[in-house]
Amino acid sequence: MLPAAVLWDMDGTLIDTEPYWMAAEVELVEAHGGVWTHEDAVAMIGSSMDVAAAQLQARGVPLSVTQIADALNSSVRAAVAAGIPWQPGAYEALRALHAAGVPQALVTSSFAVVAAPFADAVGLFDVVVTGDVVTRSKPDPEPYLAAAGLLGVDISACVAFEDSRSGLASAVASGARVVAVDSHVVLDPPAGVSRTSSLVPFDVATIARVAAGETLDLRDAA
C-alpha cells in the first residue's frame, strides 16, 4: 500500500543545512555586537523567519524582518549552491519513490529563494510549499495541508518526514502519517508517530508500512 504522497521537510531532514543557518545567525548577531550561542541556534531549528528574526532583533540586530531574512537567505543559498549537503539516505529515498510513481512535495519553512534552487536541481518534487507562500507557517498545519491540496490527495493517506519540533507539530496536526527524524534535535513525538535517526532505513517498502498505519522505531537501524 503505497502512500498517496510523501511530504518532505527540507532543512535538517533532506539536507544538512542547519549548520549553515546557525553560522549565518552567529555572523549577523556578532556583526552588531551581540552574542548568539549554539544553544540559541538549536532553539531556532524549524522556526519561521518571523520568529527567528524577532529573536535576532532581541539580541541587538537593528534590522527589519525583511532585511534579516535577506541576509540569512543569501548566506544559506550561497552555501547550498556550493554543493547539496544531503542527509544519509535522503537522495536514495527520493529517487526510489519517484521510480515507484509516488508524488512528492517539499514542505519547508525556508523561503523560495533558498528552496526553489534546491528543488530545481533535484528535479524530483511535484510541488513545493515554502514559508513565504503560506499565511501560517509551521507549527500550523497549513503548509502540509497546502501541499496535499496542490497534489490533489488526502492528507491522511500521505507520509510526512520532519526533524524539528515545530515541523513535527505541523505535520501531526495536518493528519498525515508522520516520521520524526532525530537529526540535530532529539524529538519527543506523540503516540502514532514513527521515529528514526536517519533516512537510510526508509526504502519504498518501509515508507509503505508507515502509510498503512504501522508505527516504527528505526533509530537503532539507522
Tell me what the structure shows.
- This protein folds into two domains: 5-16 and 86-211, Rossmann fold (3-Layer(aba) Sandwich); 18-81, DNA polymerase, domain 1 (Orthogonal Bundle), CATH 1.10.150.
- It is built from nine helices and six strands; from the N terminus they run βαααααβαβαβαββα.
- The protein has helices spanning 18-31, 38-43, 49-58, 65-81, 90-99, 112-122, 142-151, 165-174, 204-211; strands at residues 5-8, 104-107, 127-129, 158-162, 177-181, 194-196.
- A six-stranded parallel β-sheet has the order 3-2-1-4-5-6, with helices on both faces.
- α6 (112-122) links the parallel β2 (104-107) and β3 (127-129).
- The mean pLDDT is 94.
Biggest sheet details: 6 strands, parallel
- Can you identify the CATH class of the largest domain? Alpha Beta
Q: Calculate Rg over CA atoms.
A: 17 Å
Number of separate structural domains? 2
Superfamily (CATH H level) name of the largest domain: HAD superfamily/HAD-like
Span between termini: 23 Å
CATH architecture term of the largest domain: 3-Layer(aba) Sandwich
Stretches with pLDDT under 50, minimum 5 residues: none
Net shape: globular
